[in-house]
Amino acid sequence: MDRSELHQVLKAITSNVYFQPPSNVALQYPCIVYQRDYADTKFADNSPHRITRRYQVMVVDRDPDSAIPAKIAELPMSTFNRFFAADDLNHDVFTVFF
Q1: With the C-alpha atoms ordered 73, 74, 75, 77, is the resulting torsion angle positive or negative?
Q2: pTM for the full predicted model
């Protein structure tokens, strides 16, 4: 699957989804910000056979009880990584293979 498919999956959860947004973009909250951070490569006969990309997916919301993180947690191959609060915003960070 490619990144555009992941983008559509995330857009079904919330309308504000950003892939590696530049610093001059004003984010609209609640939102999901994601970036590619790793790829798992499986080899067969010394050649790449299957590559699965991993993304860091972060939910940013003013609401500490937001339902959005639970929806990200329900995605296949999703694991919760950490939570932090900064600038009166709650950040739930997940690792998602897609």
Answers
A1: positive
A2: 0.90
Q: How far is CA 49 from CA 3, 40, 42, 43, in A?
A: 19, 11, 5, 5
pLDDT, tens digit, 9 for 90 and up, residues 1-35: 689 999 999 999 999 999 999 999 999 999 999 99
Fold of 3-97: STM4215-like (3.30.2000)
Q: What are the boundaries of each domain within the chain?
A: 3-97
* Surface-to-core class of residue 98, CB atoms within 10 Å of its CB (0-12 exposed, 13-18 middle, 19+ buried): buried
Under 8 Å between Cβ of 81 and 56 = yes
Cβ count near 26 (within 10 Å): 5
